[in-house]
Amino acid sequence: EPISNNPQQKHSVSAQEKGLGAGGSVSGNGRPNTAAGCGGGGGGLSGGLTQPAGWQSLLSFTILFLAWLAGFSSRLFAVIRFESIIHEFDPWFNYRSTHHLSTNGFYEFLNWFDERAWYPLGRIVGGTVYPGLMVTAGLIHYLLNLLNVTVHIRDVCVFLAPIFSGLTAISTFLLTRELWNQGAGLLAACFIAIVPGYISRSVAGSFDNEGIAIFALQFTYYLWVKSVKTGSVFWTIGCCLSYFYMVSAWGGYVFIINLIPLHVFVLLLMQRYSRRLYIAYSTFYIVGLVLSMQIPFVGFQPIRTSEHMAAAGVFALLQAYAFLQYLKDRLTKQEFQTLFFLGVSLAAGVVFLTVIYLTYTGETAATMATQHHSLAQHMPSLYFSPLPLINPIKPVILNLDTERLFDPVLSAFAVYFAGVMVRLMLTLTPVVCMLSAIAFSSVFEHYLGDDMKRENPPAEDSSDEDDKRNSGNLYDKAGKVRKHVSEQDRPEEGLGPNIKSIVTMLMLMLLMMFAVHCTWVTSNAYSSPSVVLASYNHDGSRNILDDFREAYYWLRQNTDEHARVMSWWDYGYQIAGMANRTTLVDNNTWNNSHIALVGKAMSSNESAAYEIMKSLDVDYVLIIFGGVIGYSGDDINKFLWMVRIAEGEHPKDIRESDYFTPQGEFRVDKAGSPTLLNCLMYKMSYYRFGEMQLDFRTPPGFDRTRNAEIGNKDIRLKHLEEAFTSEHWLVRIYRVKKQENRQALDHKLRNVAAKQKYTSKKTAKRKRGYVKNKLVLKKGKKLNKKSV
Amino acid sequence: MSSSVISVISRFLEEYNSSTSTKLKVVDAYLLYILLTGALQFLYCLLVGTFPFNSFLSGFISCVGSFILAVCLRIQINPQNKAEFLSTSPERAFADFLFAHTVLHLVAINFVG
Fold first, then answer.
1. Are A284 and A227 in contact (CB under 8 A)?
2. β-bridge mates for residue A725, sequence order
3. Does residue A687 register a pLDDT over 80?
4. Given pLDDT bands bounded at 50, 70 and 90, which one contains residue A766?
5. Closest residue of B to A323, CA-based?
6. Which secondary structure element, helix H or strand E, spans residue A137, and what is its range?
7. Residue A237: which of B4, B84, B100 has the nearest Cβ?
8. Cα–Cα distance between A14 and A746 in angstroms, integer?
9. CA-to-CA distance for A41 and A432, rounded, in angstroms?
10. Which of A191-200, A393-402, A616-625 shows the lowest mean pLDDT across its residues?
């Protein structure tokens, strides 16, 4: 191909030539051709003349595509091992809502009042749910069906999270590229595609908000950094629209609306105010505010709750600051000071009044401790194993640019939140990925870049491509300069190549170990659908326990469509989703008194419970019992929580201490407390269990989960009858009997003294019978008619 | 103190009149108009009450939003700030302004109820 000798025409020489040149020199070094190395090497050479732009973008595209593929495939373990099914509990509600959306349309979904949940209260779904997830899945389903690709809505829901993980990788790439460079971006994309912290909430089948929310989060951050960099209103509006999507997707949007003001505030403190910052934040705040209030669930919270006040405060501060800057530019120092005093006193007065007003109408943060901590995911995190094995080096950045400051601020807050609540480990994950990518990128740049600089001139000399050497003066000049420099450097770095190669090898090994670790953790810890249980025998064959679905389908096919099922709130969503029956309480847990009623019914004896069940119109009761297979997540293990919640609302009727032995133990065998042995939950769990002998070593009625022989073996139920027990006794369903027509008396029958036998005193002469007090007719006298 | 404040303000107004171009003065007049509209809305809300709250918020935020967007436009077309906005020509700034206004008013119309 003709090479132009004109040094001014920078883009005339084909990129291919340069690519071959640089590629050739890279492989000539014997270094593995990592993306970071290539990017770093390309950046290391001055002027970017040998930067193979074509190769670089091809490489980036390939790497991102592979990252998407890796992220997608590594989330498919559960689908391959079991089937394409919605997992756990919350996703069932999301699935049911999406199904409602796809069958009935958008406005029906937005205004949906669900009377089959929280009977008899009902639930306003449209106003208590973040619609982003359902709308996304519904839209994809609609578009695919429009193109005549008939996918079932369940498959769209199952595979939505893996697809969005690829998009998350791309937006992380974009964000890290803005913050650092392309190499770090590619590394970050690869990390976040397979990191377990994110996978745990976005496996195929886990149809939950976090699956799309992390994508929206990263994308919003990318657009924010871009808009601060360029100061363009266009990018800021893009950021607002992405923020709107985030608000519709997840309650964690509060993280964004606090982090961005914090970033602005830190910049103001560090004297890095600029007009671009003003434009970016002011526009973002106002347009973002009005957009976020369009979601019914959010409503007026952005101007009422304390979580959003930081954003408003920073907005006001920024306006004041900008106005003062404007005045400062136009007035002399003296004049400015006069006005400044006036302004400050006014501002102080306003702030004082606002504080007084807010104290009067102030919010008390009332969290229900019992219910809050009963959720295991709300506990503080105890371990950090899902985090990547990285960060031996965190680059200490002394001169932080405006946008690079974003990273430390983000990471500080993310670490704090992750320490408080395990579930928020998810917000820490993207940050850690980005920081570690930056660390790795700098290390690679440092240790590979120097090699490139040094090795390049000799490689070029020894190359056979004469035209390359003659191509343009700049090329030769650069080569000459570099050789000169490298000759100077060489004596100083005698041990250089060995250390560099060792470090590079170590880093690569670390990365490979990380990939293996991630895949192992994903496969073992996060790929269980939890609706289907699997156990493995000694010979490795698999034993599937499908009791849950068996029971829910029994309910679906054998009960009346309007039957009401009472169970503990954990199973509400699954019952509504799979069995399609009305439930009393479910995972939404918005009404604690209602849950307490159910808890009271479960903890009281059968007659008291029957009264409650009658008042709530309950037809069926469903419990989970793990005693036969040793399943530890059953209702007896959760029983104390039921008692505690019931005690919170009905302290006079339920006392937790009644359910413990006098020594303070919770026992289900003969030594257990009589209240426990007579309560409804106990009876329902162990009904007919006393007849069952699991194997010849243990007595009949041996509970495998509690490792105890149960106390009450002959249980009789008066108001319930057993309707269904699943194959491994995991799910037990009882039917509530209607009241009998004749009520049994609650008192003993009256003892009536036996009448003495009447013996006739008639003699033989007067044996004719006579009626006592019979009217005697006296012959001859006519009865007076008037007296009759 | 008060006399000095008045003198400062009057001197500022003089300097403003002389040094700002007509284009910017037009934008400033528009800003003043938006400010007055917003103040009127707020006054109305104080007098009549906040029901329906979403309508009040929609109108008020629309005013504040228009104000902010006009300020951004003013910053971007001010020739004194050219160094900071090399890639943003005045035409581009105005186009962004229109785009932002479209989004803002679409949302405001949806919110007004």
1. yes
2. A732
3. yes
4. low
5. B71
6. helix A132-146
7. B100
8. 101
9. 25
10. A393-402
